[in-house]
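Review box. Two proteins, two foldings.
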Amino acid sequence: MKKLLILALMLLPMFGWGQSAAVKKIMLMAREDNRTMQHLDILCNRFGGRPAGSDACDNASEWAMRCFEEWGYEVHLEKAGELSVGFNRGGWWGQMTGEENMHLHFATPSFTAGTKGPQRGHVVIEPRTQEQVNRVKHQLKGSWVLLNGHNRGWSFGYGKKWDALREKIIASNAEAEKWNREHAGEDGEKKHIDDDTAPLFYNQMVEAGVLGFVQKGSVPICALYDRDVIGEKIPFDSLPTVPNIILDEHQFDHIYRMAKERRNVQLEFDVRNYFKLGPVAYNNVVATMKGSKYPDEYVVVGAHIDAFDVATGGVDCGSGVSAVMEAARMIAESGAKPERSIIFILFAAEEFGLLGSQAWLKAHPEMHDKISNMFNRDGGPLPYLGFSAPKSLVKEYEKISEPIRELYPQYEFKIQELKPRKLPTRLGGNDASSFAVKGIPTLQMYEWQDPMGYGFEYHEIWHTERDTYQKSIAEYQEQAATALAIMVLGTANLDKKLPRDEVYLP
C-alpha cells in the first residue's frame, strides 16, 4: 500500500507536467504554425458559399471530416435532417440597354429560379389593382416587372397561403381605387392603395409570360433563401419557375424613373440557379477526443458549416469553422490527454433555423446533463478579449488563461466573475441558444470589439455579398483559434463540471 502511495505521488507531477507540455506545444504552434487562415481559404475559395442542401456544403463537410480523421479524432457525419430539394448556385450577370447602357448589380435568394439562359425584355411597373393589370396585360409577356417595396433578402411568397393574403389586398385595393375615382376632386383626400406586398398579381403575371420580377435592395445586397421551399418542403415539381431579382437600390430607382417616363429601357439577366432532386440530407460533422478520466462528461465546441452563397461565407460562419478546426488541430497535435471528452461539432443548416444543433440535442438527450460547457464561435472574425467564469472557478480560469495573455498581451484578456442569468426559454440567433434552452452552460469568451482598429463592421457583411475570405482578419482569427484551444482544454481538465447553479438562476 505504501509503495502504491509513493508511486501515485510520483505520477502526479508527471501528469501535471504532461498537461503543461501540451499547452506549451499549443503556444509554439500559435507562434510558428497557425493554420487558421489556411482552413478558411479552403472553406471559402475551394468550396464557396455553402447553403445546406448544396454540393458545396456537402464537399466542405467531407473535407472537414477528413481533416479531423488526420488529426486522430473519432469522426462521423451525423444526419440532422433532409430538404425536399437541393440547390446549387452558378454565376449571374445582368445589363440594361436601350437609351442607356449599364452593368447591373444584383443577386437572387437561394432556392429560387434562374433564367432560361440570357433573357432580355422590356420593363413594366408592377400593377397594383385589377384595372391596372388589364391596362398592361398585353405588355406583360416577355417583360421584367419592377416590384414595389424594399427587399430584405428573402424571396417573395407564393402558393396557396400567399394567394389568400393577396386576394384580401387586391379586394381592398379595388375598393380604394373605386372610392378615389368616385370622389376625385372633392377634397383632395384619397384612400391608400397597398404598395408593399409584392408581387400582388403573381399568378396572373406568371401566366401572362413575364420573364421575372425585380425588386430594390440595399447595398451591400443581402440575399437569403426561399422560405416556402425550405419551410413548406415544396417538392421539385412545384418549385418557382421565374426569377426573383434583388437589384441595387440606386440602379432600381434610376430604371424605375425611366420606365415611368416611358423611355426605352431593356433589361437582360443570365442567372444560373440549379436545383437537384430530393430528398437531400444535411449532416453535422462530429469529431470526438475521448476523455482520459471522465469519458462520459463533455466539453462541446461548435460552429456552423453552412453559409449563404451570395458570397463565400468567410465571416458567417467561416470565421467560426476555421478557428474551431484549428483549435481541434492544436489540441490533437499537442499530445494533450484531456480528462473530459471534447466534442467538436460543425453544425448543418444553422441558417435555416438552428436545425443542425437542435437535431444533435434531440438525438443525444442522455448527454445533456453531462456537458460541462458548450463553446460556440459565430460572431465574426474578432479576437477574444475575456471570459466570465462562475464564481467558484475564477481562480482556475485565471490560471488557464495565463498563456493567452502571454501570447497576446495587446488584447489584455481578462477573467471576470459571471453573473448568473435566467434560464432562456426561446431560441436565439446562434447554435449556442439550442443548448442554453436545455439548461446546458454556454459560457463564451467575449469578442465585442475591434481593438486594433481594422474597421470591421459585422452588419455590413452579415448575409450579404461582402461575406468573403478577405473580410476575416488573420491576426484576430489566429488569436481566437489559440484562445479556444487553451480554454477548451482547460475546461476539460477542471476538477469539476461548470456548476449550473452559478450559470443559471434557480
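Next protein.
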Amino acid sequence: MNIAMTVQESPTGSLFSSSLAVPSEELFAWHERPGAFQRLQPPWEAVELVEAPTSVKDGSRAVLRVPLLGPIRATWVAEHRDYVAGRQFRDVQVRGPFARWVHTHRVTSEGPERARLDDDIEYALPMGFLGRWLGGASVRKKLRRMFTYRHATMRQDLAMHAKAGGTRPMKIAMTGASGLLGSALTSFLTTGGHEVVAYARNPKGSDEGRAVWDPAAGTIDASALEGVDAVIHLAGESIAGERWSYAKKARIMDSRVQGTRLLAETLAKLENPPKTFISASAIGFYGARGDEVLTEQSGAGTGFLAEVCTAWEDACEPARAAGIRVVNPRFGIVLSPAGGALKQMLPVFKFGGGGRIGSGKQYMSWVSIDDAVGAVHHALITDRVEGPVNVVAPQAATNLEFTKALGRALRRWTIFPLPAFMARLAFGKEMAEALLLTGARVEPRALVDIGYEFLQPDLLPALERLLGKTEAA
C-alpha cells in the first residue's frame, strides 16, 4: 500500500516523511489539538494510555503501558522537549523499553497549501550489539507498520476535515464517548478543532469536558446541553459478552430506549436546543433476511434485535417533533482490533483455529472503524441528511468470504468450521441465530446518495490496514 511516505532506515534510527496537501500551520495545529495522541495509536497495538500529554510543549508527559513479550507489559514515560511553535517538538523516553529513544516531529512548509511531515526517530536497543542482532529487524518492521498507519490516518483525517470546508468549530455533546466508536470519534473530532462534552454516569472526579447523566434514574445534567451545536448518542448495553437471559435482554432494551428518550425529551425542552441529534441504531433493525438486498427504504424485520432497534429509533421522536434534525446511523459490524467482533475473533484466527460459522452463507454487513467515524462526521456536517442511514461498506460479505479474507490478512489457515449446533450450545439458540448464524445484506444507499466517499470500501485492504499488515512501498 503506497501512501506517498518515504522511509530511510539505519540500525540506530528511522526517518518517515510524507508530503501532505495542507498548509504547514494546519498540519502542526493538528498535532497540538486534544485527541491527536490517541488518533495516532495503531488499533492493533494493545497500548494502555495511563496519562495523556496535556500539550506538545516542553515538559508535558505521556505515560503508557505497552506490550513487551506475551503478557509482559512495560511502562513507557515520554517527555516533550525542544518545542518550536509551528515547526517541531520531540518525544524523549524518560523510562521505557529502549536504551534510548528520541522522536522528532518536524513540519516544513512546501508552499501555501502543502507541507512535509518528518518523523525522525533515533533509538538504541538494550544490550548493545546483542540487542541489535536479536531485535533490530523486528523493531524496524514494527516502526514501518506503525508509521505507515500513522501517516495514512493523518492524511485521511486532514482530507476529511478539509472537505468540511467552512464548517465552523462545533461544540458537541456525546454519550458513549469511552466506547470503541465513541473514543475514535472523539479523537477525530477534537483534532478537527471541535469541542466534545462527554456524558458519563460516573465521570472521573470533576473532569473538565464531562457531564453527568443516569438514564435508568431518568436524570441528566441539562445545563451542559444548552447551546451545543449537536448531540451524538452512542451509549447502550452491549449485545454480546453473555447469554441473552431475560435480564440481559431487558438491559439491552432499556439502556437504549430509556437513554434515547431521556435525551430526546431533554433536548426538546431546552431554550437553545442543538441543531442536530445523531442517535445510533443498528442493522439489526432489518432482522434476518437472507440474501435480500436491504436499504433504508426496507421495513423492519422480526426478532428481538429488530424490536430493539425500532423502539430505539422511535424514542427520538420528541427531538424530531421539536424541529431538531434527527439522524439514525444504523451501524453494521464495526471492525477494529481494539474492540467489538473483530477483537473477539482474532485470538482464534491468529492461532489458525478460525473457520466459517454454520453454513457460511449468512451475510455480514461490515464497516471499518475509519468509515464508521467518517460516516458520522459526514452526517454531522451535511444538513440534508435526516432519518435512517445505513453505516456499512458498499459490499457485504458472506461469513465464508469474511473468514477467508481475515485468514489472508493474518496469513493463517481457516479450516476449522464452527458448526451451527455448537454455536447454539455455546451462546444459546436465540443469541446464536441473531448474531452468528443469520445475517442481513445491507447497502449504504443514503451515504452514497449524499456523496460520502468510503475510505475502506473493500474488505481485505480494510483488514490489512486495521491489523497493521501494510507497510510503505
